[in-house]
């Protein structure tokens, strides 16, 4: 795998600014990709890129895409959390870019939880 250079980071930053709302923005959905050290080592960058690609290619303007640190389940990384308005948050585990695209299309855009990749919904309900 090629190393990321400062110019690459600048391009990623520009893409992020162009294609997604800021944390303070308004949106009907929020996707959080967990990018702690363990998540990055497990492939979270690919998951984040897949989500960014879906947002850009579909010109989605009402989804907030952001990052957070480790969620405490390092062995299940890469992970992402999807929050839809008036719905419990859903934590997805063991992700790949392909799984992330499916989650984006089916859950974020379609409102249907992808149960085979989900660990839990809400703070107390297991799927």
Question: What does this protein look like?
Answer:
The chain contains 4 helices and 6 strands, in the order αβααβββαββ. The protein is an alpha+beta fold. Helix 3 crosses helix 4 (97-109).
Layout of helices and strands:
Blueprint lengths: L5 H14 L9 E6 L2 H6 L1 H15 L4 E6 L10 E6 L5 E3 L4 H13 L8 E4 L3 E2 L1
Parallel strand pairs: 1-2
Antiparallel strand pairs: 1-3, 3-4, 4-5, 5-6
Helix pairs in contact: 3-4
Give start-end ranges of low-pLDDT stretches.
20-24
Q: Please tell me the CATH architecture by its name.
A: 3-Layer(aba) Sandwich
Structural class: alpha+beta
Overall geometry comes to: globular
Helix/strand order, N-terminal first: HEHHEEEHEE
Number of domains: 1
Beta percentage is: 15-25%
Short note summarizing the structure:
The chain has 127 residues and is an alpha+beta fold. The protein has helices spanning 6-19, 37-42, 44-58, 97-109, and strands spanning 29-34, 63-68, 79-84, 90-92, 118-121, 125-126. Strand 5 and strand 6 form a beta hairpin.
Q: Which short descriptors sum up this protein?
A:
about 130 residues; alpha+beta; Glutaredoxin; six-stranded mixed sheet; 4 helices; 6 strands; about 20% strand; globular
């Amino acid at each position: 795998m090629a190393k990321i250079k400062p110019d690459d980071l600048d391009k990623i930053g520009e893409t992020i600014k162009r294609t997604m709302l800021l944390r303070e923005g308004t949106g009907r959905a929020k996707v959080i990709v967990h990018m702690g050290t363990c998540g990055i080592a497990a492939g979270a960058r690919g998951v984040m890129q897949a989500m960014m690609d879906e947002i850009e290619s579909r010109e989605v303007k009402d989804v907030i895409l952001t990052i957070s640190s480790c969620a405490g389940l390092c062995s299940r990384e890469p992970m992402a959390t999807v929050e839809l308005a008036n719905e419990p948050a859903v934590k997805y585990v063991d992700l790949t870019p392909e799984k992330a695209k499916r989650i984006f299309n089916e859950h974020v855009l379609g409102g249907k939880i992808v149960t085979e990749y989900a660990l839990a919904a809400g703070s107390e309900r297991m799927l």
